[in-house]
Amino acid sequence: MATIKDVARRAGVSTSTVSHVINQNRFVSDEIQQRVLEAIAKLNYTPSALARSLKLNQTRTIGMLVTTSSNPFYAEVVKGVEDSCYKRGYSLILCNTAGDAQRMCRSLETLIQKRVDGLLLMCNEGHAALAPLLQRYPALPIVMMDWSPLTGLSDVIEENALLGGELATKHLIDRGYKHLACISGPLDKSPARRRVEGFKRALLSAGRDINEEYIVQGDFEFSGGMSSMQQLLMLTPRPDAVFACNDAMAVGVYQALFRAGLTIPDDIAVIGYDDIALSEYLTPPLTTIHQPKDTLGQVAIDLLLHRIEEKKGGAPVSWALTPELKVRTST
Predict the structure, then answer these.
(1) Rounded-to-integer distance, Cα 67 and Cα 121, Å
(2) Of 52, 167, 198, 261, which has the fewest beta carbons less than 10 angstroms from its beta carbon?
(3) Rg (Cα) of the chain, in Å, rounded?
(4) What is the DSSP annotation of 110-122?
(5) What are the residues whose beta carbons fall under 8 Å from the beta carbon of 70, sequence distance 6 or more?
(6) Residue 322 has what DSSP assignment?
(7) What is the chain's pLDDT, residue by residue, as a tens digit (331 residues)?
(8) CB 72 within 8 A of CB 89
(9) CA distance 206 to 170
(10) From the CB of residue 98, how many other CB atoms can be counted at a distance below 10 Å?
(11) What CA–CA distance (Å, rounded) separates 311 from 313?
(12) CA-CA distance, 88 to 156, in Å (whole number)?
């Protein structure tokens, strides 16, 4: 493999001149520039990205840790992040944690060893092992997305889950449903807790009682939605409307109702949360709370690159994105 010294020798110039031609950071005569470019082409020379990153102390790569899930929401967020990276001239290195704290820490160490310029984290709040590891790299820009187990250590971008839970529940109340049920996500995750809090707040605002039997904890996965709905169908009176706290669980709810011989919305209405691409292709199309996934990825990258490129320190900031009701025909 040719080196910059080989190019300089063939062109009859110094290595610094070759560097100036490649980086276009200093005047070089047309004649010398042509000789250097011909030498580069003849030798099939490619500048070393590693050497360049060491010299500039920047790799133009972003690392991202994501909790592995069958929930399409994460894939849609990652796509938004990757698109934003591409537009800004950065590459993305994605690591799945598989829900395992040890694998998460090893992946994080690998990203740091690869000298990523910044980190995006979408990891379970139960992974407290992250905090001491990240404290060893106080200068590394970090943005938490969707939930924030590392309060005070990083910038945070979340959606207003409390408002989203209220919007979903108020919609069901306004449609005249009487027996409202809620399938939450894991309650160790702050978005799950806040969506349930919004559910309860909307009931109280409408003068409704809160029956804890009608609030079942799910897992944000397809199977969790199905098993939770099967549990709710055993109640008397049976719910006439269900708020699934994400669309993946709403898909599981659809399957449970299909197996029970019930129709949506005639027998039971269903509303989800996230507005994943699949939701409008269900039968019937799913009423849901739209979460701005593209905006989440774009704002996360913008904030992270602002920290990287401007070398901005200062106190961590917190952003909240506003969810919106997307009415379809499942309610």
Answers:
(1) 9
(2) 261
(3) 26
(4) HHHHTT-SEEEEE
(5) 221, 222, 248
(6) P
(7) 788 888 889 899 998 888 888 777 778 888 998 998 888 888 888 776 545 554 555 688 999 988 877 788 988 999 999 999 999 889 999 998 877 778 888 888 888 888 899 999 887 645 566 777 777 777 888 898 876 655 566 788 888 999 999 999 999 999 999 999 999 999 888 889 999 999 999 999 999 999 999 999 999 999 999 999 999 999 999 999 999 999 999 999 999 999 999 999 999 999 999 999 999 999 999 999 999 888 888 889 998 988 888 776 677 778 888 999 999 999 9
(8) no
(9) 8
(10) 12
(11) 6
(12) 21
User: Whose structure tokens read 């939450």?
Assistant: 184
Quick one: tokens of 165? 């839970």
CB burial string 252-262: b at 16+ within 10 A, e below: bbbebbeeeee
Both structure tokens of 8: 């300089």
Q: Which two tokens stand for residue 212?
A: 């804890």
Residue position matching structure tokens 């160490």: 109
Is residue 191 within 8 Å of 161, Cβ to Cβ? yes
Residue with token string 């949360």: 273
